[in-house]
Amino acid sequence: MSDDVTSTLRNYLLSQRDAMLDLTRELVGIESYATQADGTNAVGDRLCRELEAVGYATERVRGERLPPDQRWLEEFMLPGYDRDRLGFQRLARLAGGGRGRVLVLGDLDTAFPPGKGFPFRIEGNRAFGPGVADMKGGLTVAVFALKALQATGLNNLAEITCVFSSDEQGGSLDARKPIEDAAKHADWVFCVECAREGGKIMGSRAQIGVARLEVFGRDAHAGRAYAKGVSAIEAMARKITAIHALTDPKREIFLCVGQVQGGWRRSVIPGHCWATIDVRTPGPEAWSEIEAALRRIADKVELPGSSSKFLIASHRPGVPWTDKTDRLIAIAREAGRELGFDFGVLRSPAAGSSAFVGPLGLPCLDGMGPLGGDLMTDHEYIEIPSLVDRAALLATTMHKLGAGAWEAGGRG
Amino acid sequence: MSTEVTRKLRAWMDAHEQEMVDLLRRIVNMDTATENLEGVEALARLMADTMKGIGFSVERREAVRPSLEWVNQAFLGERGAPGIAPSVLCRLPGGKGKGRLLMMAHLDTAFPPGAAAQNPFRIDGRRAYGTAIADMKGGVVGIVFACRALIETGVARPADITVLYDTDEQAGSTWSRPLIEVEARAADWGLVTEPGRAGGQVVGQRAALAMGEIVVDGVEAHLGTGFREGRSAIEALCRKVVALHRLHDSDRGVLLNVGEFKGGTRRNLYAGRAVARMDVRVVDPPTWERVRGQIEAIAAAEDVPGTRATLRLWQHRPPMPWTKDTDRLAAMVSAASEAMGTHIATIPTMGGSDANLIANQGTPALCGLGPVGGAIMTRGEYIELPTLTERAALVAALAHGLSLGA
Predict the structure, then answer these.
(1) Do residue B259 and residue A222 have CB atoms under 8 angstroms apart?
(2) pLDDT of A235-272, one tens digit each?
(3) Nearest to A368 by CA among A106, A164, A147
(4) Which ipTM value was assigned to this complex?
(5) What part of A 75-104 touches B (C-beta under 8 Å)?
(6) Strands B370-374 and B122-124, how do they pair?
(7) Is A375 on the interface with B (CB under 8 A)?
(8) What is the CATH T-level fold of the domain A207-316, as seen in this structure?
(9) Residue B369 belongs to what H/E stretch?
């Protein structure tokens, strides 16, 4: 093995360069915010058509609704949206005669709400478009890596499974179960989010969660009855500065009050204020500590007569960095070396679809998609040549796993 | 001002109590939310006809869009109104006494459209209830009957009386302000029939009212991945809010309320923008100068490096300070009320009204001359029914007294 294998895969993918860019353009052209079921279904159909053509069996599946005490999360993630109308989660599966089982994860939805996108365009080596990096370019990488393994006859794995999520931007509440179910039958996981910071992949992902804080005071006219009022905005402002003060970058603990709204009239002391909080910690221990600190801040009565209501949930458990991670990185690095490039690996303070495989003890490399940046902006882009590089990296790494690199202790 | 004339006016008023109640019922049940232009227009026509009926010449005055659009947005714009109904300007020359008197009441209410139907006029014991009955349908009625009493009793009254019914007081009088100022400059005194205080007093001094808006621009970035670049506008504004509320000091005549706060677009982004709106009331001009400087300093502070704040402050009610003229007016209130067998005090308040705009032109003014009321801007808003006639008689007595040059 095999620089021969590597160049075979690479050459195949080089021959598909235009097709990869075409598919990316086509996928970007389909608006697919999580609430646009027609869009996420269309993207899923398109991917499944490609994979069915090389022998994959595909399936439309659904996750489970949350238990009633956690339903607030559904409303929190996609306000006002009827979850029964979500697009389907997609499974694609191919059994082979080899050894080892790989799970590939990707997302059908983008961060761009309906009508907030912009047209796909190419400038030099970059392709711009809504969701081109996060993560339609990654979907192209995944599909073509799998096609390359089939087209070259180099698929040496026992099973390859893909789960494409329709609600990653909505917290993956529906996709979670299909991903967890598929992960139970996998040995290694790859997720095709775009590579970070000039090509880095992600060896670990944070535990993340969300909270909703409501503060209640008492409405009163600011001129006639100031003393009767209790300002929920004042109490909330003090809580927010205390919440932000929990941020500790050295410990990879990040908190952000992303949205806040209180009051309804200048001249009325505001009786109500709400805020949403995003929380990221490196793992469950730090999570528990931060959750307890947040509860203390929420419960504190800043002003006589103020009260609060606090809801918190961790919807993504994250992926810890383990020995297995090092081993998988070593194998991917070897593949990269054969392809002529190296890459860094980082600990990600964010999390996505791969966040559910951590508790199952599976090693996962995320950020296997193309190099890209300026996510969620009107100039989100990918580096076009990295479509081929990254598909070759994924296919070659998978081939090495099938060829026994893992048993060899990650020494290629 | 003689006790005899005051009692005569009071007796006339008592004899017309049922008519006053009937007019009050009718206009309380008319929906005149500032933004309900049709509703306000209907009341404006009724008042125009009523004033013509008692001998005034009446014209309608188109209002003027404020030159500062953000000010317009902050008042009328937020209530979804494209403009306001024309004011009703009524004049009565020919009084035997001296001077020019301006009387004012606003026709609009602070309630949302539809409130009048949900909370109609009703009487329960000594109180009458209904939408905006105190603020200030009661005062609208009071002016009509004070004028009628002056005319029908034939007592001396100011040479010229101007009655101005404006239609956007509950939206800061930003459109009516130029007209009010012109009429105030032409007048020797101003009487405004906002509700009497719950304790029965009339108002001789009013606060300066300003509204402010702070917009903080930060740097929007994804939490975690954008930690280094992200600058939370929400965090910066929260620190400013806490600092602003520390300026509140009711003992020194400073009321400050941040009544609205909004920031951020997504839960997982450091907020790129946050906006707070505040209401500031201060007791007198020197306090305003001090507090304004403090607000400016708080806005300018770079609480979170890399964030930037823009402050806009607009004083829509300039201060109405207590002056020597206020002493004289308060003495007249005292004398007239005692002639009617009661005692009505004159006090300062921290509220604002059109009286501020009159006083700001150097014209002595009194406010709170409408019936005594409470629970204002709630469903339980009421007036003390016996004060409907009492306060109208007081207004007539003051008009008479002023015309004597006392």
Answers:
(1) yes
(2) 999 999 999 999 999 999 999 999 999 998 888 999 99
(3) A106
(4) 0.84
(5) 76
(6) unpaired
(7) yes
(8) Alpha-Beta Plaits (3.30.70)
(9) none
